[in-house]
Amino acid sequence: MKVLSSLLSVIALICYHTLLIEGIVEETCTNTQDGFCVNSDPSVVPEKSAKIAKGANEKGVPPEASMKDCHDRYLDHCPRYAEDNQCTINPGWMIVNCPKSCNACHLRDPKIRCDREYLNISTTPIYQPGDMERIFSNLQTKFGAEYPITVLSTSPWVVTIDNFVSDEETDAILDAVNDHWERSTDTGKVNEFGEAGRTVSLSRTSSNAWCRRECETNPLVQQVVHRIETFTEIPSENYESFQILRYEEGQYYRVHHDMGSRQVLLPCGPRILTFFLYLSDVEEGGETHFPQLGLKVKPKKGSAVLWPSVLNHDVERQDYRTVHEAMPVIKGVKFAANSWIHLYNFEKPNLWGCTGAFDYI
Length: 361
Known about the structure:
By secondary structure, the chain is α+β, with helices and mostly antiparallel strands. Helices cover 24% and strands 20% of the residues. The longest helix is centred in the N-terminal third of the chain and has 21 residues, at 2-22. The radius of gyration is 21 Å and the shape is globular.
């Protein structure tokens, strides 16, 4: 019986890890299992300057939504917003919050407004099978004379690039988000309008901020984005805004993957690349760990690490080997930035509120 019980436990663990990698379940395990999954310690929290994200709740419940009745959520403000042309400038928010004022009740349904043809975005993926291998294998030849590039793995590709971000560019990014830190959150449930709820993350204890508005329009930040475009041969319209991260002593992000299988349902498609920027040195700890590859990348201010989230021969299928974690900071503070890159245009679907709803199809 003990042998059978042990066997069933192993089978359950394998099934759990499969679901975790596919992005179907959230990480909730309570014990270390061969270095793969460790439950978070809720006693480790960001400093008081990190706020709880607006709308985040314990169960990740999104705003109430029903297709039955078309009404504005903000009766005192929606007509004025519509007069100010916000239905065109900010369609995603307005469609779900002020549909009556925008005469857009039918567009609350994400199956309609989030169709690629309706959004008028390309239906051709930015990478074809084989492009991932071509891009990575040519990095040293194309950029090695200007940037020190180290190939850590070729199957899958993982490379580091030193001197990628200057001190001046780093300061510009951090200065722009300095007052906007929030507790890191995970995506929760999704309502009929395609709005996703948020819950304070239990698998990562960092705080983050998003590089938007004055940050994205800063010429120094734009220089970094253009550099990423050159390296990846992918235009910035396929990029999410930089997610800026702050890890204080004891904080971490447990093993996870940046691409979940349900992302293929989104008009922007799945995340295919992660271009991760280190914005500070860390005295001890804070490495980016790839447990399936036996690799640890130490934070180094101005450097970057680049890896694929999908397979070279099938760019809509997750490469499970690039699961990774942010190891706990032991001494110092770690600042970094995620640049997540999608298979299709991200910019326009995001504007129309179509990038957070993994379950609407």
